[in-house]
Amino acid sequence: MFRCTSHVDESKSVKKDIVGTRLRRGRVPWEPGGQRRYITSTTISVMSEAAAAPPPRSTEAPPVKKDKKAAKEAKRERRAAAKVDATAQQAHSTTTGKGASARPPASGPKVKDTAISTKAVTGSLDEDLSTVGVLGDASLFGNVTLPRNARVNSASWSSALARGAIHPAVLDLCHQISTFAIRGANKRAISVLKALAAVIQDYKTPPGAVLNRDLLTRVSQQVGFIVESRPLNTATGHAVRFLKYEISVVDAGLSEDEAKEHLIGRIEHFIRDRIVYAGKVIQANAAAKIHHGDVVLTYSHSSVIEGTLLHAHNHGVKFEVIVIDSRPLFEGRLMTERLLEAGIPTTYGVLSSLSTLMPRASLVLLGTSALLSNGAPYAQSGTAMCAMMAHGFDVPVIICCETYKFSDRIQLDSFVVNEAGQSSELLSQEDDNTETDSVLLTRSECSTQSRLKVVQLLHDVTPPRYVSAIASEVGLSGTESVGVILRDYKSVLFGV
């Protein structure tokens, strides 16, 4: 109850309505917002429908509202300090030995005994560094997929394997994808299709179930585990879409063995026609643009670009290659090794030397993970820098891409949709020569360092104006032809 008292002359009765009037001595306005008013000769009482608050003191200043940003920073610091204290206590408990008593004092609250292994306490440095803030403020990068911790993945896979929900082939695939053992859009798509083919091969239709419906549910479940390990790229997504369509339209009159054989044959057909044969056509089309004495510049590693360079070399064209590479994966090293084994003169450099090596190039060949409908390549980070630098030096840029990587999506920048890598790949890098770790943050600092934000985007978007031509199995075309190919050949490309 909130009570306001006003001194009124007791000799006079208050009979008129006081709604909208102001008590001049108390300086308290009347606001009739659903409130009931009780007036006596000496006291005016106000009862609110909400919970009543104690009257404010006139001598004290009104409370100041805390800044939200300061409150968040304080909360973050408290959490970091608590985490450091917990880590120190765990480390101390492990070093005290088995003879130390884990029983709490009698006066204190009872604590449950927990067995903590040394491996779980120490862990790996990469897992510790993965706790460092990635991409900074999440409000700025809300559509960027963050990597999952290795322990979270292992726990999810173990639980699914115990329930029999995940196939062993899919489990092995998830591990390889999450650890980047499988790289490249084509290799990922082929690996996913082969793993799903193993799922179909071992599938048994439950009693009373329909094969295409139950198998579609089973395949979708396996794809869900793959997505949890690492999001599907455009190429893999189209391959999975193709397989789901083939499962949904399988002939109901076929037996179980015949239906499984048919689906596995369709998977082999997609790999052969859409990936292998399409790559050979692209290699022939792009290799025709390489002439004697050319210096071809490429970035990182692409199976299609590698095949194109080897195709031109096998046909007697004498040329040189410049391979540009970048951290943290250094995929360009594999490209350099393959070219040197074939006898092609090769120059290896990193992105920091791009401005020095680009004037030597006469042609730039780049691969891509996807090709957006406006002709913009969605490729590994660093591709846009190579294309822009080539445009500045008037060097033609040819993007080699299979049509099953064409996407009907339009993306104007790299933050609309993207994927983030592990922060430990940039903060910790093992040197094979010295067998030492070059660590930006130590294990004790990574949990307390809240000011460090790591930005590692795996892909970027190249504006189509920096691309000279697109090489696909359809032929050499401009960037504006991507939408036309999707519109006219969508049923042929995707099987729908």
Description:
The chain is an alpha/beta fold and 496 residues long. Among the domains are: 1-53, no CATH class; 166-279, translation initiation factor eif-2b, domain 1 (Four Helix Bundle (Hemerythrin (Met), subunit A), Up-down Bundle); 288-421 and 456-494, 3-Layer(aba) Sandwich (Rossmann fold), CATH 3.40.50.10470. It contains 16 helices and 19 strands. The protein has helices spanning 68-95, 118-122, 125-129, 150-163, 168-178, 185-201, 211-229, 234-248, 256-287, 303-314, 332-342, 354-357, 383-392, 424-427, 443-446, 482-494; strands spanning 2-4, 22-23, 28-29, 36-39, 44-47, 144-145, 295-299, 320-325, 346-350, 363-367, 370-371, 377-380, 397-400, 418-419, 428-431, 436-439, 459-461, 469-472, 475-477. The strands form 6 sheets. It has a 7-stranded mixed sheet, with helices on both faces. A 3-stranded antiparallel sheet has the order 1-5-4, with no helix packed on it. A 3-stranded antiparallel sheet has the order 11-12-17, with no helix packed on it. It is globular, with a radius of gyration of 33 Å. The model is unreliable at 1-66 and 91-123 (pLDDT under 50).
